[in-house]
What we know:
Chain A is an alpha/beta fold. Chain A has a five-stranded parallel β-sheet. Chain A has a five-stranded parallel β-sheet with strand order 20-27-21-22-23. In chain A, strands 2-1-3-4 form a four-stranded parallel β-sheet, sandwiched between helices. In chain B, helix 4 crosses helix 7 (about 160-175). The interface of A and B includes residues 98, 110, 645, 647 and 665 of A.
Amino acid sequence: MKKVGVFVCHCGTNISQTVHCEKLAEAAKTLPGVAFSTEYKYMCSDPGQTMIKEAIAEHGLDRVVVAACSPRMHETTFRKCIDSGGLNPYMLEIANIREQCSWVHSDKDKATAKAGDLVNMAVAKVLKNEQLPSSFIPVHKRALVIGGGIAGIQAALDIADTGYHVDLVEREPSIGGKMAQIDKTFPTMDCSACILTPKMVDASQHPNITIIPYSEVEKVDGYVGNFDVTIRRKASYVDSVKCTGCGLCSEKCPSKKIPSEFECNLGTRPAIYSPFPQAIPNKPVIDRENCRYFKTGKCKICARVCTADAVNFEDQDEMVQIRYGAIVVATGYTLYDHSQYGEYGYGHYKDVISGLEFERLVNASGPTMGKIKRPSDNTEPKNVVFIKCVGSRDKARGHDYCSRACCMYTAKHATMVRDKIKDSQAIIFYMDIRTPGKNYEEFYLRGVEEYGVTYVRGRVSRIYEEGEGENRKLIVQGEDTLLGKQVFVDADMVVLATAMEPQPDAAGFARKIGISYDQNNFFSEAHPKLRPVETLSAGIYLAGACQGPKDIPDTVAQAGAAAAKVVALLSKDEMETEPIVAKVDTDRCSGCGFCIPICPYKAISFTDLTERVHGSVAWGPTGKEVKRQVANVNNGLCQGCGACTVNCRAGALDLLGFTNEQILAEVDSLW
Amino acid sequence: MVNSLDPTCNTTPEPMTPGSTTPNPTPLEISAAELTVPQNTSAASAKDIASDWEPKILVFACQYCTYAGADLAGLSRLQYPTTTRVLRVPCSGRTNPQFVIRAFQKGFDGVLVAGCHPGDCHFTTGNYFTRRRYLLMTRLMEFIGLDPRRFRVCWISGSEGPKFQQVVTELTDTIRPLGPSQKLWDEGGISS
């Protein structure tokens, strides 16, 4: 005999002012299955919860309906309450008589009638509730960090410090990311390499970190606690175990004139190379596209000079599969291709460069050894013009969003020009100046006041060249909106502050590992304010600019936050999962497989079912064991959306907690 | 084609005419009259309607968006008809068309299936299935002679309390002149 207890809450006067709570509780007593009914001022308070627990014991209730506020508010509270009262926490239903009744109606009689209906629905549903067991899945205590920039390095270090093993996958030959290319960092003007390279060394020497360089994540299967990740180690043609990193091969390589990606094509590198001298791991790779041996079949000089016999031209891509409990995605950003701004002449005029190219020009380890020289003729520029918001805040050709870091790095660049070139001028064209960070505004003002950087408010309409030979100069034509007139500025070099944008393959990657992404292809966090580093896929976290444009302090902070989430997950031996999952009635399942493609979590697969067949059947002799395929739901993967239940033509699939029977009972109760 | 799946939910579907169901009206045995949905007057006269009759509406609300939107309407104290009943489902994709049919059988005058906006589904793709299923559902309703104006699919996010109020009020206003739904109504109740 099912015994339902109905508990009506007044919520102070929130409910009782529009609903006759006493009448409601009285009427509930007459409903089928209801053994007990009462009302109280605050059901969620300690006396209210005690009242529920006592009633369970006293009246032998086996299921409970609480008519109160929205289940989104206190469902968990009351589940815990009946759990400690000795019932299965899922033997509870909430009738939402506050948000969806007393607050939206004013006629007390009609509202009471509606509240009565809502209680009816809840009672009808709870009568069909089944005890749902909490299931536990084991957590594999190993984390994967995808992307070896500052975000990935920081997250890996933070996780590794707590004692869990971390694999750091990087697709380039070295970790370091964009930060390794930057010269100085605002607002402190620390040397970027001086703060990054020690972290890179820490990561490489940490006993709990394995760096997997020159590799990409191919596939992610599994679910929180148990991700099976396939990683493709790209063929580097150098045995990283044998290689000592002496660098002799790079020195002797005959193909030396290859534009260096690390130097933003301003410098060159050989075909067997390590991206920069401080690279970690400092083991070279062969660029197959440009290697003389791979192009002509002759050369092998590197193999001959290698004393460790590490060069292996037979190397192949290799797939490795590793199991992880949690994943941090820190794949970073790329820069907007400003060749779309034809009027700025990028690609056409050598002296129009991007901010990152400027970083390489001022970097002491860069192609010009830190001397600012314009690329066209290697002379020192005197007038340097900076243009902000190239691709940011421009709906027509770029992105709607603000890239956040450009105001500050342009202020830094201008300061550096004024600092390094005595009689120089630095002129910045801007739309707005955004300095939202600690000491950022002060840094910008210092540029203006101490270094005499000139700011011109307005967009640049055109850059063109005038003069020949030594007199050749760029003319920047723009509008000064504060003066309200056109300005023409002579420039020796123009630096464009290009937008940060997601990696070109971000959307595909997101689909591959099963996380969502926004309209700009940045990865989406679970909640913009309250869950900023989690994704909607449990066990996958975000760090750094792959989630949105960020500067280094924010990236490091987010990486630490992601690491804390990972550690919280890995610190458990087992994870409790919501029992609201789909369930297959194998007797009904025909094995049609229609549910398999509809599941967004790949939670349904076929499994073989062996059963003894009695009587005469069309497909085989009687009394024999017959094997057939039926659907099987993986409880760890299933998130309980119920899409499969509607698709099942045999009615074999049902969603626990929201079964067909329960929903139909609710519908039926209303008339 | 009647389209009640318009994401903006602002367009009231056109009244159905025989022509709209059969673009090329060359009925063989079926007469045009049979294809016509019972009109307001006939529907209203078939059942005694009290002067204060209000259409009863059942809302299948996904718990991540629309249910939260309905809660927000409550928090903002936005008033809507007391004849609205909200049934919580985990995802609009969980709403089996069978549930909708059952609601009409049990005497509901209107049904609303509401979920997250396309692209915003908590379960990634659930509402796309809703959209496809209920485009078909609308045609089934036309086929069995149930006025498609009584049914609507709508996207209401967790931050759209006012939209929830607007949609249920509009649906009530649309259905009121149609009178009680009788087509599938089973007075004695259908045994489950």
